[in-house]
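Posting for a labmate who doesn't have an account.
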Amino acid sequence: MERILVIDDEVRIQEVVQVCLETLGNWVVITASAGKEGLVKAELEQPDAILLDVSLPDIDGLTIFQQLQTNAATRHIPVILLTAKVQTSDRQQFDQIAVAGVIAKPFDALTLPEQVRSFLQGWMGHG
């Protein structure tokens, strides 16, 4: 079974994502509520993918993404950003980094597993 790490400080979002991905997507979901916790869990758990909130209280998501990329133990894990920032300038910034995809908040819970799966299939093609 595929495992995904969800790093988001909003418990409600964690719960919605977990329920959707587990019941509709057959994923095993691991959660982290802060950036540092997420970095530790990514290294220890070695998930198949990471769903990362851009706005976190301790370290912002883009910094976490850079730290994941510079760590040989986590560099290979595809990252999908979860963000309420959908301005053109934000999108351009996201396009410049090697993320598997960007999902805008609020997202459609019912289509979330399909979105995640399609981003990951596209990402595997780049690898």
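Reply:
Got it, the structure tokens are right above this. DSSP finds five helices and five strands in the chain.
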